[in-house]
Amino acid sequence: MSNAQTDIASNQYLTREQFQALSAVGKNDKNAKYFHANSKGPDSEASGQEAVAIGPSAVAAGSGSVVVGEGAVFGAAGRGVVIGSQAQVGADSPGDGVVVLGSDATAWGDKAVAIGGNANAGYTDNIAIGGDAQATAASAAVAVGADAFAGGDQSVSVGSAASAQSQAAVAIGASANVYGYGTIGIGRGAIANNHHATAIGEYAEVSAYGSVALGASSVCDREYAVSVGTADNGRYITHVLPGEQDDDAVTVAQLKDAALQVNPKVARRLGNLEARIATLRQLEARIAALERAAGRS
Predict the structure, then answer these.
(1) Are 167 and 152 spatial neighbours (Cβ–Cβ below 8 Å)?
(2) Is residue 164 a contact partner of residue 173, using CB atoms and an 8 Å limit?
(3) 82 and 132 housed in the same domain
(4) 249: containing domain
(5) Could you tell me whether strands 73-74 and 88-89 are parallel, antiparallel, or unpaired per DSSP bridges?
(6) By the number of CB atoms within 10 A of the CB, which of 53, 62, 104, 210 ranks highest?
(7) Contact call for residues 63 and 50 (beta carbons, < 8 A)
(8) What is the 3-class SS of 46-91, one letter each residue?
(9) Residue 172: beta bridge partners?
(10) In the predicted model, what is the mean pLDDT of residues 263-292?
């Protein structure tokens, strides 16, 4: 054991080669490849059981938590991952499975995920992905895209600056904006601002309850109506099956067929009417003749 030193307290051995290898790890040592640290900040702190904290002022308080980055903090008791300068999971955050990746990103709650600079997943099961993405609802909101915002429970926003502000609302497309329970807006700049409204198409807009706007720039402002254009610019609806029920739409072909069936009946009635008019005229002429004859006598 000439190449070993004994730790008397623990009765463990450290070889001279191992000791020299460990001693070689340093900031200015060229033998320490692929890992370097350059900071005069406070040391990291891993207070949670089996926790790992890497970086100046990094804090890993949760059991099994992993924290990497200057000032990064996992302050909760549960498990989770925080990576990025000043990325945070607060001490009051409940539960496990929280993931935060990105400078200044934050998350709170069970299984919350925030990925991107300054992204924020504010409550349980929320997901925010993208720079400044915000998922702030009480549960299960999803915001994906730079500046995307999901503020309602179970709401979804996907796209740069997309915004779903109400429960169960869906906004998909850059700058799509929806407000109202169960509202849907799909397309760049689509707007749906009433409950159960749907706007599909670039800059499509709905403002009435339960209404639908289909197609780019379509507008619907009447309740329970469907619009495929605007007052000045409409669209054809093609390839529609003939209506069968009383509340089905009627096609032009059905109208033409109905006209063909009606026209002969109308013609017959007009013919009968003309014949009666001719008879009345004959009677009128006879009455006039009788009146003249009576006047001469």
Answers:
(1) yes
(2) no
(3) yes
(4) 240-289
(5) parallel
(6) 62
(7) yes
(8) ECCCCCEEECCCCEECCCCCEEECCCCEECCCCCEEEECCCCEECC
(9) 158, 186
(10) 80
- 97: domain CATH number is 2.150.10.10
Residue entry with tokens 């400044």: 132
What pLDDT sits at residue 108? 94
Token output for 85: 């300068």
Same domain, 88 and 204: yes
Q: What is the DSSP string of 209-269?
A: TT-EEESTT-EE-STT-EESS-SSS-----SPPPP-STTS---HHHHHHHHHHHHHHHHHH
Domain contains 59: yes
Give domain status of residue 14, yes or no: no
User: What counts of helices (H) and strands (E) characterise the chain?
Assistant: 2, 28
Contact partners, residue 2, CB within 8 Å, separation at least 6? none
The pLDDT tens digits for 171-210 are 999 999 999 999 999 999 999 999 999 999 999 999 999 9
76 and 220 in one domain?
Answer: yes
Structural contact between residues 92 and 107, judged by C-beta atoms closer than 8 angstroms: no
Condensed to tens digits (0 to 9), the pLDDT of residues 74-128 reads 999 889 999 999 999 998 888 789 999 999 999 999 999 999 999 999 999 999 9
